[in-house]
Specification:
Order of helices and strands: EEEHEEEHHEHHEEEHHHH
Number of helices: 9
Oligomer: single chain
Largest sheet: 5 strands, antiparallel
CATH superfamily of the largest domain: Aminoglycoside phosphotransferase (APH), C-terminal lobe
Strand content: 15-25%
Strand order of the largest sheet: 1-2-3-6-5
CATH topology of the largest domain: Aminoglycoside 3'-phosphotransferase, Chain: A, domain 2
CATH class of the largest domain: Alpha Beta
Distance between the termini: 57 Å
Helix content: 40-55%
Low-confidence stretches: 1-8
Shape: globular
Length: 289
Amino acid sequence: MKLDIQGHSGCDIAIVYEDNELHIHKSTHDAGYVPRLVNQANKQIAASNREYQNIRVPKVFAVEQTDSDAVIKMEYIYSKNYVEYFENAGFEQIKYLIGAIEYFIDLEINASTMQTVPSHILTDKMADVARKVANNAHLKDDREALELVNRSQAVMDGVGDMVMPVGTCHGDLTFSNILFNGNNYYLIDFLDSFIESPLLDIVKIRQDTAYLWSTLMYNKPFDKVRLSIVSEKIDKAIDEYFTSRYQWYRQYYMPLQLMNFLRILQYGHDEKVIAYIKRVIAGQLESYN
């Protein structure tokens, strides 16, 4: 039995029943995407071999690859998505989730080393974003978007070299990539990142807790007020936790969150989503005035 569903990354996702068990098959038929999907699989395999408290990673059973195709065969997890979980979770469950996220990122920090990230890493990425926005058919004539990019370039030019932990991160640690099974949280869809730093995982989780990004992609009815309250509580706790412990978080979170949304903007095609991202970026730039 095979049930195909659409993945957010453009890959094909299939729920497959074989050997008396359900498996997930994630595949691509884009030759250009094959190396990236294989790298993601290897990243997930490495993470699944580590020990985390209440954090789980689905096992990868096989990675099959040709020049034009790749498929990752992995464990199927019976779970709730973040909206279903938050709508029924009590205070203790949310507190438990916060602790698990903090613990997971602290383990990433401990597995990384403090390194100097040269300034050109950020400025080169900013130049790449500017090129992609200028070539995006939905943005190239958008004066507001182009002006936001120009203002952001000045911010990135002023950041300089960054000293931060580098070595390991999930790469896309958003609520939509967490499966909820009781008090166990399964991480899926690992991605490569332009800086392999735990700080990027804090940036991504706060993309949801502070900016409610994943709700834009959620098509079913849900209690927006409750989800906003829960997200705000999680965001405040995470921000306070890392602010109190790490200078590099206090110093570099804001420019890297700005870069995060710029990197989302460069692929924008939906008018509503583009308008939302521009509001977020404009609000972030206000803090630099």
